[in-house]
Structure to design on (560 residues):
RNA sequence: GCGCCGGUAGCUCAGCUGGAUAGAGCAACGCCCUUCUAAGGCGUGGGUCGGGGGUUCGAAUCCCUUCCGGCGUACCA
């Protein structure tokens, strides 16, 4: 019976209908109250010259018998399939326990490598909610791909080079307090002050450029301060990464590619892909409906695209990836299209494996975020606030809880992650505290709470003995079973679409279905066989919620 | 101007590789804690799926067109 779960239901059903007109894709999910799967028979009416209702009946009578289908119904032109609940329940729960489905998927993916470029923060600036999207989406995809058996390489393509460091250096030399250790806050105020004052004072702006030149030339004093800036930000930013459970395998950023761009430029020239236009070296892309891709500026300096071309090559050589993802805001859509096209023109056959995983804009109170103008919300502050609210709720509802701080941390961070991962990444989002501080309804705390409920029941229920699966055929339990059955395909779907929100939606659905089951009747009763069966279901739900949340970088406290 | 993306209930969203009465959550109102965690469950109200054409037995979903919003459009990243 375990074989059922490893097969695609739609494929199997289409084969049972002995008619070549019917394919796997014709099978749909049944409407509420009409069984599990359905075959709409309208489209065959023309060819078979019969009414859909008749066709459905004919298919029904010609059906190959199969013990996983309980019965079928031909109604209103649809042929509805009712699966054998007992068989399905047994296979689903067994699979939750022995993981045979996911292990099969992992075996297929073993040896595949995916590079994921995410977070990729600009190092001279503090970590604010604008950086949350790339960090959360990329961090989640990293876990999802690993879960599915891939070798994932997390890359933080640090923005650790550029005139911003010259500005910062100029500001630090001018106003910096060297008598005490530099903090990220100091750097921020220095940067803001520099921006403000250089708007009035052009000489200052010029100093920013000359200071950066010093860093580029490798002047000892300048480089030392540059390194200090880098260390200071990284130390601060790493605290946030640690709290969020974000990890990277590489921090090779812009500075890393400084000496790796010339070979690319040489190759582009050698392949006659470049031309000089207004003094700049470009690759014309008119044939592909795009503006030219800038390789070097008229003053000879390299650009963003040059660095990305270089980085893509480096990753291809170093990691031999099967996929390489760039989790970067949608604004850079054109940039990546250009870079991918240039790589294709260079003859890189792996150019087809590059994907720009884009996400929408984050604004705050309807306005774009801007470090320069001080219109920002720092991620660390957001986390502090959500954790504090979680702690307040715990103190109110469960004051005797052990590990209050730890639990509040998980709940608070979960709320933040869900803000980033709960909806489709392409949608623009406006940050507001009401939204992240909401712990009711479709939220991470709701899912965590549901799992804590499960754990509580399981702790009370004790050992689960032999299970009679037929005892779980009630509508409430079967709704839960159906969802459990979809877990792996949901994860695969989210990986294929680079869309963690699919898992987030799924977990909400599963939690809702479980809560209905939980309310519908007591799990632990005097009826031992029934209790066993219900505990088995509860355990499967608890484990699935925990696994699913972990793919969204969210922890699951056992009690809350 | 051109290109990309969004437009579904008061708000936030799901559904979009066409299928049966368009689903959740929040907010509002009304219920349910002597019994496994009420961060929960149940109910009520709330929709011209931006507008208009088309394809189809069938369209929120596909095609065309139009309106609104966001972003991009060569020397920033």
């Amino acid at each position: 019976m375990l074989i059922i779960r490893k097969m695609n239901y739609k494929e199997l059903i289409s084969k049972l209908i002995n008619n070549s007109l019917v394919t796997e894709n014709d099978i749909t999910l049944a409407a509420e109250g009409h069984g599990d799967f359905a075959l709409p028979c309208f489209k065959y009416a023309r060819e078979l010259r019969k009414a859909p209702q008749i066709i459905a009946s004919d298919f029904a009578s010609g059906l190959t018998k199969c013990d996983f289908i309980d019965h079928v119904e031909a109604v209103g032109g649809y042929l509805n399939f009712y699966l054998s609940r007992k068989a399905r329940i047994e296979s689903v729960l067994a699979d939750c326990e022995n993981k045979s489905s996911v292990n099969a998927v992992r075996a297929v993916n073993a040896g595949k490598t995916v590079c994921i470029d995410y977070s990729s923060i600009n190092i001279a600036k503090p970590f604010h909610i604008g950086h949350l999207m790339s960090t959360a989406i990329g961090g989640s995809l990293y876990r999802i791909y690993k879960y599915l058996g891939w070798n994932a390489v997390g890359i933080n393509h640090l923005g650790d080079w550029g005139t911003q460091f010259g500005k910062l250096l100029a500001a630090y030399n001018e106003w910096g307090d060297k008598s005490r250790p530099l903090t990220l806050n100091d750097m921020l105020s220095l940067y803001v002050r520099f921006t403000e004052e250089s708007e009035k004072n052009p000489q200052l702006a010029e100093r920013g450029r000359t200071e950066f030149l010093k860093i580029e030339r490798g002047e000892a004093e300048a480089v030392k301060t540059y390194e200090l800036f880098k260390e200071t930000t990284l130390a601060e930013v790493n605290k946030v990464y640690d709290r969020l459970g974000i990890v990277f395998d590489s921090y090779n950023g812009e500075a890393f590619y400084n000496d790796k761009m010339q070979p690319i430029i040489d190759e582009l020239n050698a392949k006659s892909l470049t031309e000089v236009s207004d003094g700049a070296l470009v690759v014309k892309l008119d044939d592909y409906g795009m503006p030219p891709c800038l390789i070097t500026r008229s003053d000879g300096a390299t650009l963003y695209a040059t660095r990305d071309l270089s980085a893509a090559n480096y990753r291809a050589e170093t990691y031999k990836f099967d996929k390489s993802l760039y989790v970067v805001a949608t604004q850079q859509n054109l940039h990546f299209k250009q870079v991918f096209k240039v790589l294709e023109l260079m003859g890189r056959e792996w150019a087809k494996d590059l994907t720009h995983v884009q996400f929408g804009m984050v604004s705050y109170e309807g306005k774009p975020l801007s470090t320069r103008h001080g219109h920002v919300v720092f991620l660390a502050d957001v986390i502090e606030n959500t954790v504090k609210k979680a702690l307040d709720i715990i103190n109110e509802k469960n004051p005797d809880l052990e590990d209050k701080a730890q639990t509040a941390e998980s709940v608070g961070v979960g709320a933040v992650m869900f803000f980033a991962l709960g909806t489709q990444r392409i949608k623009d989002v406006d940050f507001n505290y009401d939204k992240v501080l909401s712990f009711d309804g479709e939220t991470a705390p709701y899912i965590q709470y549901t799992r804590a409920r499960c754990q509580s029941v399981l702790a009370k229920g004790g050992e689960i003995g032999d299970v009679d699966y037929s005892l779980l055929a009630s509508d409430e339990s079967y709704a839960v079973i159906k969802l459990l059955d979809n877990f792996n395909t949901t994860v695969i779907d989210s990986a294929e679409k680079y869309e963690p929100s699919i898992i987030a939606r799924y977990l909400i659905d599963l939690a809702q279905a479980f809560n209905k089951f939980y309310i519908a009747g007591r799990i632990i009763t005097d009826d031992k066989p029934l209790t066993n069966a219900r505990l088995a279901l509860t355990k499967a739900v608890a484990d699935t919620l925990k696994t699913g949340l972990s793919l969204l970088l969210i922890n699951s406290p056992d009690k809350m």
Remarks:
- The domain at 3-83 of chain A is CATH 3.30.1360.70 (Gyrase A; domain 2).
- The first strand of chain A starts at residue 28 and ends at 29.
- The longest helix of chain A spans residues 220-244.
- The two ends of chain A are 38 Å apart (CA to CA).
